[in-house]
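Complex 337.
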Amino acid sequence: MDARRIDTDVLIVGGGPAGAAAAITCARNGVRVMLCERDATSGERPGETLHPGIEPLLAQLGVADRLAAVTGARHPGIWIEWGSARRFEGFGGDEHGAWRGFQVWRADFDAMLLDRARELGVDVRRPCAATGVLDDARTRTTDGVVSARVRVDATGRARWLGRALGVPAEPRSRRLFARYGYVEGECPPRDDAPALVADVEGWTWTARVKPRLYQWTRVAFNGERTAADWLPDEFAGMTRRGPARGADVTWRMAERVADADWFMVGDAAATLDPTSSHGVLRALTSGMMAGHLATAIVQERAPAHEAAAVYHGWLADWFAADAARLGEFYRRLNVEV
Ligand SMILES: Cc1cc2nc3c(=O)[nH]c(=O)nc-3n(C[C@H](O)[C@H](O)[C@H](O)COP(=O)(O)OP(=O)(O)OC[C@H]3O[C@@H](n4cnc5c(N)ncnc54)[C@H](O)[C@@H]3O)c2cc1C
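Predicted structure with flavin-adenine dinucleotide bound:
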């Protein structure tokens, strides 16, 4: 066999939470999966504050018992200062006590999910990048040409397949740009819970990721890029860890997020800015949903176009509800996004 020609049932491009969730779901249902991730290792990556609701999803993926090993801190809610005095918004609780969110180091969190995929027989290749879409469901990757019945685009904001197929993802909000970075040291006021604080020009998020390591994100309402040397007041005097980075967090959803032989999942399908607070949860859920539908297509249990329509409708409804909720949230500050 030509080592550069690979045959599989489902090709997943991107090894973040969305791609890993899709891979695990497909593999558990008995189809052959190859996942290619372009980076050799996941370094610092935003998306570290996870709602307690993540736990049941991780249980479904078979990794809930590994979560503690990648968790650097827990918190029972979030401090919010958003057009009124600072207040604590708890996650709630039950007879066992307060529900607590998780602060994870994304490199470890993503590796945990990919390890699970490997255990289930997924052919995980990294570093391996998808570089081109060929005809007949073939994809060019840096490991060779891959033939697959279904392709899943899990490339995050890179939107690899969407761009290659020319599927537009028009802005659904004003332009929003996030600047984010890390500092090392001690910040006791931030040790009990993250904080989201709005001022007249934008909002700032601060959180402890793990002992002696904190993360901040700043978004300006006017769409401008916050200066790279900016730092929240509460982190003044602490040691920067690496340069600040930037990300376009304008709300978007692809015009089509599925077709008979492909699905877009996670940020590749739709993104909201980080105040939506559950990008990783949406990545996992959409990956699992697409994984089930891709399996049904491969096993010929569902007509492919119907499966694609179901997925698109489900994601569009979710996005619309989230965007409406977030729009209301910004309106409390008299900001139209
Ligand atoms: C500043 C900021 C703060 C955030 N904070 C939070 C938060 O606190 N909580 C939260 O839930 N969400 C947060 N988010 C959102 C969260 O980061 C994303 O929603 C989440 O990471 C999406 O997961 P994903 O798997 O879709 O994409 P990603 O995590 O982006 O993974 C995509 C993967 O695809 C790979 N890839 C790209 N192109 C190719 C290619 N051609 N071939 C192969 N591989 C490729 C990339 O290397 C990457 O590993 C934040 C986002 C930002 C920008």
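The chain has a mean pLDDT of 95.
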